[in-house]
């Protein structure tokens, strides 16, 4: 009886480990970090559209829920297909070598099925909210899968800029779910679009040798760190005027956003003199993540105050 009880406990542990491993594989496949960060910007688009159109949040909670679920689904599906397409090079890079598409824990057919399924479900959910939100979502899917993953990622250093189109779409989806796009919605798009090159170029500097081995022509790999640093400075400087277009959120927001931009610009300029490029790129990468989170949460907060 003792042995039987021990076998049951062992089997239970094994089942839990298998389930945990499968869940981790699923989260890795859909790139849950990207999904979560994009939901922040989507929610901000929804919230500001409700705020500026004079509509209540609770009265439109169905729009909020369907839009967030639909956006999460199309992003998850797009990321899954990206993983499917890149399975031949992901084994070279340290941060991607354990993805289930590389290890074979999830078959290629299952990945494609899951990816297309999520995109289809997400599109249906967005259609339940508005046609324009669904169309914008599909344009984001196309730009990420076709223009970025299949076309520019492995051929051109401009791949980072092309990939930024898809990453800037979520706040437009959120806004379009509530109201027609206006100047504020497009400023949110521009903030996201301009934020991404310095963010991902910093990451590319950190992982330049891995990208080189994988044959991906990231800017630091092809043109070196000095050119990359100068381009990062230009992109960050382009963010400086954008908060002033959001004057409706109040002087407090403009001051906060401008301070965040100036700090990032100063940090970018420090890179021209700093000898340890990898340490600097790590600083830039970490700051960019915090910058985005603080900025978009502040938009919501200052609209409440």
From TrEMBL:
Transmembrane segments: 29-51, 63-85, 106-127, 133-151, 158-177, 183-204, 232-247, 253-272, 284-304
Compartment list: Cell membrane; Membrane
Molecular function as annotated in GO: protoheme IX farnesyltransferase activity
First-tier enzyme category under EC: transferase
Enzyme Commission code(s) on record: 2.5.1.141
Topology in the lipid bilayer: Multi-pass membrane protein
Gene Ontology CC: plasma membrane
Catalytic activity: heme b + (2E,6E)-farnesyl diphosphate + H2O = Fe(II)-heme o + diphosphate
Biological process, per Gene Ontology: heme O biosynthetic process
Pathway connected to this protein: Porphyrin-containing compound metabolism; heme O biosynthesis; heme O from protoheme: step 1/1
Keyword flag Transmembrane helix: yes
Key word Cell membrane present: yes
Top-rank taxon: Bacteria
A Pfam family of this chain: UbiA
Family: Belongs to the UbiA prenyltransferase family. Protoheme IX farnesyltransferase subfamily.
Additional free-text comment from the UniProt record: Carbon 2 of the heme B porphyrin ring is defined according to the Fischer nomenclature.
Subunit and interaction comment: Interacts with CtaA.
Role description: Converts heme B (protoheme IX) to heme O by substitution of the vinyl group on carbon 2 of heme B porphyrin ring with a hydroxyethyl farnesyl side group.
Protein name: Protoheme IX farnesyltransferase
């Amino acid at each position: 009886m003792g042995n039987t009880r021990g076998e049951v406990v062992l089997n239970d542990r094994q089942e839990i480990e298998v389930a945990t491993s499968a869940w981790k594989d699923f989260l890795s496949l859909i790139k849950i970090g990207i999904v979560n960060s994009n939901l922040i910007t989507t929610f901000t688009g929804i919230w500001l559209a409700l705020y500026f159109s004079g509509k209540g949040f609770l009265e439109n909670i169905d729009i909020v829920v369907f839009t967030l679920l639909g956006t999460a689904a199309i992003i998850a599906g797009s990321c899954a297909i990206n993983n499917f397409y890149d399975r031949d090079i992901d084994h070279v890079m340290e941060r991607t070598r354990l993805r289930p598409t590389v290890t074979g824990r999830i078959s290629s057919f299952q990945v494609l099925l899951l990816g297309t399924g999520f995109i289809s479900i997400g599109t249906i959910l967005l259609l339940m909210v508005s046609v324009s939100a669904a169309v914008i979502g599909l344009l984001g899917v196309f730009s990420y899968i076709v223009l970025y993953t299949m076309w520019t990622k492995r051929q051109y250093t401009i791949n980072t800029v092309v990939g930024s189109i898809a990453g800037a779409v979520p706040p437009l989806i959120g806004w379009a779910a509530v109201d027609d796009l206006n100047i504020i919605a497009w400023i949110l798009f521009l903030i996201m679009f301009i934020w991404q090159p310095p963010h991902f170029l910093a990451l590319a500097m950190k992982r330049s040798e891995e990208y080189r081995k994988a044959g991906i022509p990231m800017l630091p790999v092809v043109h070196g760190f000095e050119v990359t640093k100068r381009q990062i400075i230009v992109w960050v400087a382009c963010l400086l005027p954008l908060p002033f277009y959001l004057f409706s959120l109040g002087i407090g927001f403009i001051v906060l956003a401008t301070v965040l931009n100036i700090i990032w610009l100063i940090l970018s300029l420090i890179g021209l003199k700093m000898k340890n490029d990898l340490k600097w790129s790590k600083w830039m990468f970490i700051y960019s993540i915090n910058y985005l989170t603080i900025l978009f949460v502040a938009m919501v907060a200052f609209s409440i105050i």
